[in-house]
Amino acid sequence: MNQVLSETIVGQNQTQFARFGVGHGYRFNGDFVHLNAMFTILDGAAHERAWALQLRARPVEFAAGVRSADYLVAEAVLPPISEIADDHEGFEVSAFARPPAGQGAYEMSLVLVARRSGGTDEVHDRVVYQRPEAFSQPALRGAVGFRLDGERVVVTVAELLNPRDAANVSGTLALELRGYSWPYSGGNDEGTLLAGVTLGTLAGQTSLMDSSFDLLFNRPSAGVWNFALLLREWTAGGYVTRDFINFDLPVQFEAPVQPAPVVIAPVALPEVQPVVAVTSAVTEVAPQPSARIQVEAPVEKAPVVVPVAKAAVAAPASPAKAVAQPPAAKPTVVSVNAAGVDELAAVKGMPRKVAEGIVKRRPFKSLDDLTKIKGMGVKLLEKLRVHLKL
């Protein structure tokens, strides 16, 4: 989704390190936009910054004096200034484009941005183009609604239109019902996914009419939620929001009722009488006369042996021995902003030409920016992502 920009504009109390030259412009080509500009260095401190070209869009009705309405459509990172020998340098770069969601007209501007490590963007120059830009992209038309029914939600759309040329088939389209803490404005807040359905592609100049979708509903946490239906399209940069509808009435969800714990009353046990040990009675014998009385020894009776069947006793089982598993090998991870060409090219699957392009075009803000390198497509990046870091 489009990013709402936060920036610092260079003013009278700050030095302007660089500015645009005479030539500059932009051109859309499918999911990408081509940017060209002359770059003029005004101060040696420019070497201490990382520089980028940004293409921004601002709704025409809010254009006058409202910086917070800017949306980032595309950004191309420029080579380090230390590699520029002259004070004037021309650039022609391409970047993935994310036009704002919706069908309005937008004021476009090309912005020269410098940033410090961990700091906000410093805008050193901006060119505003007089001709508004209207983006032709899949759209929602007519009545749109939803109906909650327990764990299901029914989403209805009167019309889903692809207004592009007849030969311009859309990417895979998807509808997503999402919840937000406040009404969605088309920015980069992804909210909470409540339900979704994949629709497939749609040819240019055609529509889906009177569609109804019975979907599984992912109940959000307790609170008040603003619902929005997003129309998204698969592109070279993943899913991008093309249009959206905000529903006026917020929906409140209560916390689920927890079942009362089952308490078992204690049961009084019968009183146990103490066991008293009873010894055998001792018979006292009166003293006998002094005459010795001969007493025959008692005859020992052979003991009666009663055979008792012995229960079979199983031999104790030997405890199972734990078999140590060899630790999983950790993939080698290299930094795209610090590693050399040889180190990057050593990554399995990394073409050397791509490694050279990475070194030339860095630094990068995210690994997704690597798709700007010639030869690095989305599929190749996904294969290499586990071995790369910033």
Explained architecture:
By secondary structure, the chain is mainly beta. The protein folds into three domains: 3-134, Immunoglobulin-like (Sandwich), CATH 2.60.40; 139-253, Immunoglobulin-like, CATH 2.60.40; 334-389, Photosystem II 12 kDa extrinsic protein (DNA polymerase, domain 1), CATH 1.10.150. It has three helices and 20 strands. Strands 1, 2, 5, 6, 8, 9 and 10 form a seven-stranded mixed sheet that branches. The radius of gyration is 40 Å and the shape is globular. The two termini are 22 Å apart. Residues 1-8, 275-297 and 304-324 have low confidence and may be disordered.
CATH topology group of the largest domain: Immunoglobulin-like
Overall mean pLDDT score?
A: 79
Biggest pleated-sheet summary: 7 strands, mixed
* Order of helix and strand elements from N to C terminus: EEEEEEEEEEEEEEEEEEEHHHE
How helix-rich are the residues, as a percent range?
A: under 10%
Which overall shape is indicated by the principal axes computed on the Cα atoms?
globular
Percent of residues in beta strands: 35-45%
Straight-line distance between termini: 22 Å
Overall number of structural domains: 3
The total count of helices amounts to 3
**CATH hierarchy: architecture of the largest domain:** Sandwich
Q: What is the radius of gyration? A: 40 Å
What is the C-level CATH assignment of the largest domain? Answer: Mainly Beta
Residue windows where pLDDT falls under 50 for at least 5 positions: 1-8, 275-297, 304-324
Structural class: mainly beta
- The beta-strand count equals 20
